[in-house]
Amino acid sequence: MALLEITDLHAALEDGGKPILKGVSLTIRPGEVHAVMGPNGAGKSTLSNVIAGRPGFVVTGGSVTYDGQDLLALDADARARAGVFLAFQYPVEIPGVATATFLKTAINARRKAAGEPEIEALEFLKRMKANAKALGVVEDMLKRPVNVGFSGGEKKRAEVLQMAMLEPRLCLLDETDSGLDIDALRVVADGVNALRGPDRGMLVITHYQRLLDYIVPDVVHVLVDGRIVKSGDKALALDLEAHGYAQFAGAAA
Ligand code: ADP
Ligand code: MG
Ligand code: MG
């Protein structure tokens, strides 16, 4: 069964009703990594926001199923508890909540939804330290409030740490590469690659091909003006790098 099946999805801005997604279809099977590339304003962030159930958008047509269930019927929290994780292009700050506490709370919310017991304090610490080390997240950051005062690169690392700790089944990465220098990009990509697995699916959104040198996708989709105008393998990303998005201008009209 598909992990995520999007069929002819239409979505508009809640405020004003401007149509953004104009019939998107794609299917992610367990184990697959799909990349979505496209010019600024194409609707890439809207797509990940709508999948994650973030406010501000109205679905005006089509369907999204996750593991066979109607994802659109769940609110954003329920989607997160069901294993859908969205790493933001612009990570939010949560003043007053230490990163470690936030991680533990989020893990336990998922466990509770799955009818599992809370994570043992020692197991949590062990996993957090191992993951933090692998991602170059210093321990001091884990004690600081979520994202408050983090640099751009630190925020991205902290997000991938969240992802590694939560072990989602569907990872949505929205321009997780933006603002990263090449070393940070590698660290983040390694963290994402470590999470690849037979049961997990990923949707990696990026404006640039560079990230896909490190996170090699199974399928690449080109999104222009709210529609997927082309899908292919990783060679498509290289083609876009060489020839740009202009070749698709008007293709979505
Ligand atoms: P991308 O991520 O591909 O750059 P977005 O999904 O962010 O594209 O945006 C698609 C279109 O929707 C753009 O024209 C953008 O200006 C508009 N848009 C998205 N979110 C909002 C919002 N909250 N308010 C107004 N316009 C928005
Ligand atoms: Mg944008
Ligand atoms: Mg965006």
TrEMBL record:
The keyword Magnesium does not apply. It comes from the Bacteria. SUPFAM superfamilies: P-loop containing nucleoside triphosphate hydrolases. InterPro entries: AAA+_ATPase, ABC_transporter-like_ATP-bd, ABC_transporter-like_CS, FeS-cluster_ATPase_SufC, P-loop_NTPase. It holds the Pfam family ABC_tran. Coiled coil: none annotated. GO terms for molecular function: ATP binding; ATP hydrolysis activity. Keywords: ATP-binding, Nucleotide-binding. Residues 4-250 form the ABC transporter domain. PANTHER family: ABC TRANSPORTER I FAMILY MEMBER 6, CHLOROPLASTIC. Belongs to the ABC transporter superfamily. Ycf16 family. This is Fe-S cluster assembly ATP-binding protein. It comes from Roseospira visakhapatnamensis.
